Amino acid sequence: MGKFAVGKDAYGISDRSGFRYRLRDMRQEWNGLLVGKDEWEAKHPQLEVLRHLPDPEALRNPRPDSRAEPTVERLLPLNPFRSGDAGSSVITVFEPSHGRSTLDFVVFRKTQAFDGFTKTILERAEGYTITVIDVNSYTFTAIGGAASIGGVIGGGGVATADTGSGVASTTAELVSQFTMTANGIILSASTFDSISVTFDSASKTFDEA
């Protein structure tokens, strides 16, 4: 391999500025440029490629919250109810993207009376079994009321819907499921919508269907 000249009197042109410097005084930067010593710049730290190890994510002996999220009341649109034909107890409910299924129980609150249906009827404590029509509406059959005119829209502007249990919450509501004499003797009983239990008057027992 041949030798290089000493070059003590040689000059070089800076790759950056084009100025002439003594070749022996020039310095090479990290990017390969040969520049004058007054032009030389160190490599910026942000240009250094650092090795970053991923942060650990797994936990030892985790204890996640396995409890189900509680149901919450959903605010219904303005006047979400529409009565059926005159004399009908069927009410259509408009609840956009309700996500409910047929036979679910729904409890209504903060309603307003309309077309023969009182606030008490609409806000039945154990709720009503629904029949889904589509993703935005469903129907239920009101107990103790019927449409006076039919095809009326109402219910107020702050009505809410929540998931119901289908179980009577008070003694009065439970007793209302039975036909009784004045002295408290049970003559007959209807089927409970929620748990399909009937009263057997012969054996004096409750039978589950």
State the CATH architecture of the largest domain.
Answer: Beta Barrel
**Low-pLDDT runs:** 190-194
Radius of gyration: 41 Å
Helix-strand category: mainly beta
Question: Strand order, biggest sheet?
Answer: 5-12-8-9-10-7-6-11
First CA to last CA: what distance? 104 Å
Total number of strands: 16
Order of helices and strands: EEEEEEEEHEEEEHEEEE
The CATH class of the largest domain turns out to be Mainly Beta
Write a structural description.
The chain has helices at 119-122, 171-175, and strands at 11-13, 20-22, 27-28, 34-35, 74-75, 81-83, 90-94, 105-109, 128-134, 137-141, 153-154, 160-163, 178-180, 186-189, 197-200, 205-208. With 209 residues, the protein is mainly beta. It has 3 domains: 11-39, no CATH class; 74-163, Elongation Factor Tu (Ef-tu), domain 3, CATH 2.40.30.20; 177-208, no CATH class. The chain has an 8-stranded antiparallel β-sheet with strand order 5-12-8-9-10-7-6-11, with no helix packed on it. Strands 1-2 form a two-stranded antiparallel ribbon. The chain has a two-stranded antiparallel sheet with strand order 3-4. Strand 13 (178-180) and strand 14 form a beta hairpin.
Descriptive labels:
209 residues; mainly beta; 3 domains; eight-stranded antiparallel sheet; 2 helices; rod-shaped
Give a summary of the structure in a few sentences.
This protein is mainly beta and 209 residues long. The protein has two helices and 16 strands.
Helix and strand topology:
Blueprint: E1 11-13, E2 20-22, E3 27-28, E4 34-35, E5 74-75, E6 81-83, E7 90-94, E8 105-109, H1 119-122, E9 128-134, E10 137-141, E11 153-154, E12 160-163, H2 171-175, E13 178-180, E14 186-189, E15 197-200, E16 205-208
Antiparallel strand pairs: 1-2, 3-4, 5-12, 6-7, 6-11, 7-10, 8-9, 8-12, 9-10, 13-14, 15-16
